[in-house]
Records
---
Amino acid sequence: MLFLLIGLGAGLLSGLFGIGGGIVIVPALVFLAAMAQKTATGTSLGALLLPVGALGAWQYYKAGAMEPRAALLIAPGLLVGALIGAKIALQLPSRDLQRAFAVFLVVVAGRMWFAAK
């Protein structure tokens, strides 16, 4: 049930803000399910495989709020980047990976806060 609720929360936030894996699922798995950082990251990636994003993307496309060309160009980068990122993450100690993730979230949150109009 916990994993279903994490998925539901991540799905709602993904539909609202385009987020899910790193910002919602990974911390939820680490803190609520007591998973190791690497396991949480791998589990999140596994959950986000197609067709999870397809339904949300379709709704945005129908509403004219999606750039298909940009999405298609981003996809190959995601494919290669996820492969490289996974290899790097698996080489790092879990503690360092968790701290790096926390720094990433703080930097992104600060940038979003100060850039808001």
---
Amino acid sequence: MGVAHHAAYIPWLEMGRTELLRTSGVSYAQLEAAGVFLVIVGLEMKYRRPVLYDDVVEIRTRVSGSGRVKIEHEYEVVLAERQAASLSGRAANMAASARAGDVLAVGKTVLACVGEAGVVTLLPEWLTET
């Protein structure tokens, strides 16, 4: 069909969260080494327009809320670049409907903090500061 499978978006969200964490000066590996694990307890995706094969997308990620044990993120999957010249048929028609900067999908995740034993624990204080 020439479009990214709907399940492909989920790892993109994870990449967005990982890079957002990295901008705070901590890698996810460091977080886990400290015995802090963030597990998905809620996930929502809304697909507006398809991501086509060879599209370049940007994942915009932000913390939208947090509590004592949970942190929420919101995402936008934004079209950065489309290689429409090589497309034909149905995919070419879909390509014409989106331009660079358009939001192709939006998502939301809720993550809970657990320790090494998998028991819910408090989020590190620095992670909940906004």
